[in-house]
Predict the 3D structure of the following.
Amino acid sequence: MTARIHSVNIGAPTVSNTRSRQPTGIVKAPTDRIDVRAPGPVKGHSGVVGDFIGSAKHHGGDGQAVYAVAREELDWWGAELGRELPDGMFGENLTTAGLDVDGALVDEVWRIGTAVLQVTGPRIPCSTFAGRMQEKQWVKRFAARGHTGAYLAVLQAGSIRVGDAVEILERPRHDVTVPVSFRAAMGDSDAKERFRASAAGSPGLRDYILA
């Protein structure tokens, strides 16, 4: 199967199922097209035009401009949970098909539609995500699985539509995948060492996860 965009999704403000009850943009609705651009380094701004971010402290900014999840991963969890998970259920802007999102290397570059995006790292599960899923010990279970989907930076602004092909333009010379960077972020010492060793030979490798 050719790697392609199965769904593009935008979030409007909704009340979260957490104690804070603050508005969240995790509830995403499919649309025909999204426009993406670099939102700037400050958190709280999405790279998707019209996409709402509720937690300005933890989400958004250039390193988390766009979020991608494989449709195949949603299907895996759907079978595990015994219920259908619609596109956008994980709060993703891009639901892909035929693309191993979690096999992507950090700093890998994709062309989708007229946009160029770069993989920056994993999604870290939070209480808002748990409230969205309404599953017992969701954060723990999601973290144990370790297939988080990937955050993307916008290198070239453009439009992305349903059905657009995903073309991998560049793959860096290291072996740090999104799951490895996630384990490093979670404190796994072996993953941290692997991340550091790869970063030493690849100046472009993002090491903010280890800060």
User: Anything to note?
Assistant: Helices lie at 71-81, 127-133, 138-145, 178-185, 189-201. The chain has five helices and twelve strands.
